[in-house]
Amino acid sequence: MPCTVIVGGFFGDEGKGKIVAYLAKKDKVDIAVRGGVGPNAGHTVVINGKKYKTRMLPSALVSNYTKLMIGPGVLINVNVLLEEIKNFSTKDRTFVDPQCGIIDSTHIDKDTSDPNLKRIGTTGTGTGPANADRALRKAFLARDSFELSEYLQDIPNIVNSSIESGKSVLVEGTQGTFLSLYHGTYPYVTSKDVTASAICSDVGIGPKKVSEVMVVLKAYVTRVGSGPLVGELGQEETTLKGWTEYGSVTGRLRRASPFNFELAKRSIMLNSATQVALTKLDIVFPADAGKKEFNGLSPEAKKFVNKIEEEIGLKVAVIGTGQEIDDIIDRK
Length: 332
Ligand code: IMP
Ligand code: MG
Fold this sequence. Notes:
Elements: E1 3-8, H1 16-26, E2 31-34, E3 43-47, E4 50-54, E5 67-70, E6 75-76, H2 78-87, E7 94-96, E8 101-102, H3 105-113, H4 115-120, H5 127-135, H6 155-164, E9 169-172, H7 196-203, E10 212-218, E11 220-223, H8 235-241, E12 255-258, H9 261-271, E13 275-279, H10 281-284, H11 299-312, E14 316-320, E15 328-330
Parallel strand pairs: 1-9, 1-10, 2-5, 2-9, 5-7, 6-8, 10-13, 13-14
Antiparallel strand pairs: 3-4, 11-12, 14-15
Helix pairs in contact: 3-5
Bound molecules: inosinic acid and magnesium ion.
Inosinic acid (IMP) binds at residues 11-13, 37, 40-42, 120-123, 125, 127-128, 174-175, 179, 188, 190-191, 224-225.
């Protein structure tokens, strides 16, 4: 499909990175373009035991063929981005929009010292204060940065003309639906909307350009930072279930709860999802680790997937059964 938008259905950390990487490789995607907030995101992709961790570049970077772009709605930490470009040798296929906002050290200082932001439990990466400055029209943009000059391109123009000419485009969202400034658990949210419509706006495409919206749901729910989490388990129970996770940007322990059907349904609505990916099925059903065929799943896991499909009214098209990029059941 020419243009697929991928977003998180819960509170981020659903495993979007792995799904994006898998699809980019499998479909030989021409362009992956990142929307979302900025370097507060952390995506992990594992290939042959090697971990690729990104905060700025699209997770599709593991597909050598794919051009990597960052849309004008995204905030950039220049050092983080340049470091990733260097580490992953993506210099010749990385493109940044001149209108991306720039995070500076004052934003990071504020994000880590402001009592209100501390109470919310932000990632401390400066994104909230940078978006505030952008709203006040005093933030610097990528076009002002000498270090980024060689990467600057009109991203909306490239993305739209690529879709028009039949090229495949993956639009990568970050965070998750209930961290949205508009639709999430305010004030315990991130600094802008992160639902599919916002992610499209971030990269400069209108709703008519999108062919599929894939919402990524994890087989249980996690949340890092403060704010409500219905059905939250105690730390002991989380450990017993094997659901313990640590934030990939902040290293903080993630809070956990069982899969939440109400949130899932609302997320499908808010994002106008056409497809669903379910990740980490193997963490809830260890016997199903590494499986690649739906028919091979345990009866319990099948029942769980079927119940999700019944409740949300959509087929679970992709199922993650392990860390590795190809630990996947692809039913698309
Ligand atoms: P901020 O986005 O750093 O301002 O943090 C606001 C809230 O969103 C905090 O609860 C963060 O933990 C959470 N958050 C931001 N980005 C992510 C993410 O990529 N994954 C999970 N939680 C996130
Ligand atoms: Mg993450």
